[in-house]
């Protein structure tokens, strides 16, 4: 599904991502881990085309999508969530999720103004899909809550809900468990599996090692921009280069 080849990003004199290679199959749960500053978020920004690589390619379902821009990437079915919480201001949770769906809505502006049958049908489908996503995230009871009033954990979930509303094929989750307590993290792990079972392939960047080891089927480890190991959670936990990178030996 995804093929990253020789991906490199140099900022001034700093090589943030260095000749990174990995592939991903549809339906697989892959995590990218590594110490702070290793280049993980930059890697996501390169895949989602928020940044142009210095060199290297990103292919998605056989098509070269390198540097085509975030909107074009989203049209191919790739969305990302952000390491920081997004502020959704004074919209309700349901309205916020509908924002994510909007790009999928085929009704024309005139259709929406004159409320054609087509526009009404699109609106109904959008609403049903938003409710489905909220249900999946365990947020149905919060549909009419103002987004800005949500606690941190639910705000992180809302970021995922908005991304899922666009009906992506691939979702890039940047530290989805950041700041969550252990119960929320356990639910988060279940949620990642549910997302995959819905037919959306997740890639995670994550610091919570217990969560990474329990949810991932394969792990890519990066340090100073370069891949230093790749394997199953069991293989990664025994890898000497990985232990060294984390202990700073
Ligand atoms: P991670 O997500 O693994 O913690 P990042 O990808 O955010 O790491 O950053 C990798 C390195 O690139 C860091 O040294 C960071 O300071 C640097 N970096 C990230 N974005 C930029 C930028 N826009 N300009 C300059 N340096 C950047
Ligand atoms: Mg990061």
From TrEMBL:
Keywords: ATP-binding, Nucleotide-binding, Plasmid, Transport
Annotated InterPro entries: AAA+_ATPase, ABC_AA/LPS_Transport, ABC_transporter-like_ATP-bd, BCA_ABC_TP_C, P-loop_NTPase
Key word Transmembrane present: no
Gene Ontology MF, one: ATP hydrolysis activity
Domain ABC transporter positions: 2-249
Family annotation (Pfam families): ABC_tran, BCA_ABC_TP_C
One GO BP: L-alanine transport
Gene Ontology terms: cellular component: plasma membrane
Gene3D superfamilies noted in UniProt: P-loop containing nucleotide triphosphate hydrolases
Signal peptide segment: none
Name under which the protein is recorded: ABC transporter
């Amino acid at each position: 599904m995804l093929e990253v080849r020789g991906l490199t990003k140099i900022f001034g004199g700093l090589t943030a991502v260095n000749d990174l290679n990995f592939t991903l199959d549809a339906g697989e749960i892959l995590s990218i881990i590594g110490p702070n500053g290793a280049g993980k978020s930059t890697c996501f920004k390169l895949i989602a085309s928020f940044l142009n690589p210095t060199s290297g390619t990103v292919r998605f379902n056989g098509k070269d999508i390198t540097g085509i821009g975030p909107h074009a990437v989203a049209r191919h079915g790739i969305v990302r969530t952000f390491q920081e919480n997004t502020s959704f201001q004074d919209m309700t949770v349901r309205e916020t999720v509908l924002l994510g769906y909007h790009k999928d809505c085929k009704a024309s502006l005139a259709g929406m103004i004159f409320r054609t049958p087509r526009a009404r049908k699109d609106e109904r489908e959008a609403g049903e899909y938003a409710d489905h996503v909220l249900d999946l995230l365990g947020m149905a009871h919060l549909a009419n809550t103002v987004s800005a009033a949500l606690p941190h954990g639910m705000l992180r979930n809302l970021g995922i809900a908005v991304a899922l509303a666009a009906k992506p094929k691939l979702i890039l989750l940047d530290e989805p468990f950041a700041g969550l307590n252990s119960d929320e993290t356990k639910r988060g792990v279940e949620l990642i599996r549910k997302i995959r079972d819905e037919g959306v392939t997740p890639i995670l960047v994550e610091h919570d090692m217990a969560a990474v080891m329990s949810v991932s089927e394969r792990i890519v480890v990066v340090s100073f921009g370069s891949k230093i190991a790749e394997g199953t959670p069991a293989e990664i936990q025994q890898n000497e280069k990985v232990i060294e990178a984390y202990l700073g030996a």
